[in-house]
């Protein structure tokens, strides 16, 4: 394990060790703490306060992740994962080194993430490690419980590497 993994921490709201609703397959879902969006009707309002939750070393998360051979991958949710993109990039690379995939939920749109990435290079780097991005804020008026992996019709299922290469949002082919 590299030194960055063993000492870097992420502010967490919690973890679900086996989820089947946060992306394809059985997933280890990391709910980060802190979200600037405060969407009305949010599924996780307890994650909004950046001072809430607890700090967890990346190495500890990876130890938990490694215990379950049935996992297809990890999902980064929240809160707003992009608020901790630099630390999550370390985690994402470690997950990918293990041959597992990553799903990222963000209240920001892909277009907003591209713009933010101009001054925060960890954002496009994190996106490049993911095979699926669910983007856009939850909009209560567009809530739809029949949608796969998302809560409102405005949210998109995107292919981050293809989107980065094209410079525009490219829908995922699931």
What are its keywords?
about 170 residues, alpha/beta, 6 helices, seven-stranded mixed β-sheet, globular
Describe the structure.
By secondary structure, the chain is α/β, with parallel strands linked by helices. The chain contains six helices and seven strands; from the N terminus they run αβββαβαβααββα. It has helices at 3-7, 58-66, 85-97, 110-117, 122-129, 160-166, and strands spanning 9-19, 27-32, 54-57, 73-77, 101-106, 132-135, 156-158. Strands 3-1-2-4-5-6-7 form a seven-stranded mixed sheet. Strand 4, helix 3 (85-97) and strand 5 form a beta-alpha-beta unit. Helix 3 (85-97) runs parallel beside helix 5. It is globular. The termini are far apart.
Q: For the report, how would you describe the main beta sheet?
A: 7 strands, mixed
The tally of beta strands, per DSSP, is 7
The end-to-end span amounts to 32 Å
Strand residue content: 15-25%
Q: In what order do the strands lie side by side in the largest sheet?
A: 3-1-2-4-5-6-7
| Whole-number mean pLDDT | 95
Query: Radius of gyration in whole Å, from Cα?
Result: 15 Å
Overall shape: it is globular
Question: What topology does this entry show?
Answer:
Layout: H1 3-7, E1 9-19, E2 27-32, E3 54-57, H2 58-66, E4 73-77, H3 85-97, E5 101-106, H4 110-117, H5 122-129, E6 132-135, E7 156-158, H6 160-166
Parallel strand pairs: 2-4, 4-5, 5-6
Antiparallel strand pairs: 1-2, 1-3, 6-7
Task: Please give a quick description of this structure.
With 174 residues, the protein is of the alpha/beta class. The chain contains six helices and seven strands; from the N terminus they run αβββαβαβααββα.
